[in-house]
Design brief:
binds iron/sulfur cluster
Length: 246
């Protein structure tokens, strides 16, 4: 995923033996305006060999920290939660100290799906809020701001105070500074421990235009806000990507 997404942090992460894997196929059931992944309604069932393939890659590459992310599979009853749990379980067999972060879709807010993933025991449970509520229609038309907050909130409730939750958003899609601040407050209120904020970059001409290239000072201000709001960890910079910080 790091290579196909042309992530600017690839050398830093690879030097730390960290990488991200995309599961559940290369097509998504949704059509977010900032994403270059193709949308399809009829999709193949999850590949049962995938958890084993990831295990093999992790062992071969000597990965120490992994992020498992996926497209959104609204076509599956559990939204792919069972497949996430299978991946976590098989990776736990490799090494106890392997750091496992899951960056999950909203599972249409299905609490049993969220529970399935939390119970599998990832080190970090991440779900991106992506943008501010006013822009959802344009940026994440099939998603729901409150539902995404509820996914983070429920994961925290299930996992307990030491269970790490995380969320990320992009800046530069037309949001106002105070909207970013309000979204950070909402995330903190939902029990989110880690927040990342990065500059939105247009992946291809089909995707939304960049409304603003934020000055570095604005990201410094976001970091100050994250500190003042009491987030355990945060990364706010033009090149920050949601799977970057652990
Ligand atoms: S849900 Fe995720 S993979 Fe699907 S279009 Fe949106 S950002 Fe892309």
């Amino acid at each position: 995923m790091c290579q196909s997404a042309r992530c600017p942090n690839i050398y830093d992460c690879f030097s730390k033996k960290k990488c991200t894997f995309l599961i559940l196929g290369n097509y998504c059931t949704r059509s977010c305006g900032f994403c270059a992944i193709e949308t399809k309604s009829e999709l193949l069932l999850p590949d049962k060999k995938e958890p084993f393939n990831i295990k093999e890659a992790v062992e071969r590459l000597g990965v120490r920290s992994i992020v498992i992310t996926s497209v959104t599979r609204d076509d599956l009853d559990d939204g792919g939660a069972g497949h996430f749990a299978d991946c976590i379980a098989i990776l736990r067999d490799i090494r106890e100290d392997l750091k496992i972060e899951v960056l999950v879709p909203d599972f249409l807010g299905k609490s049993d799906a969220v529970e399935r993933v939390v119970r599998a025991g990832p080190d970090v449970f991440s779900h991106n809020i992506e943008t501010v509520p006013r822009l959802y229609k344009r940026v994440r038309p099939e998603a729901d701001y409150k539902r995404s907050l509820d996914v983070i909130r429920y994961a925290k409730e299930l996992g307990g105070p030491d269970f790490i939750t995380k969320s990320g958003l992009m800046a530069g899609l037309g949001e106002a500074q105070d909207e970013i601040y309000k979204t950070m407050q909402d995330l903190k209120g939902a029990g989110c421990d880690i927040v990342t904020i990065g500059q939105y970059l247009r992946p291809d001409s089909e995707c939304l235009e960049v409304e603003e290239f934020l000055a570095p000072e604005k990201f410094i201000r976001f970091s100050k806000w994250a500190e003042d709001l009491g987030f355990k960890r945060f990364s706010c910079s033009p090149f920050t990507r949601s799977s970057y910080l652990e």
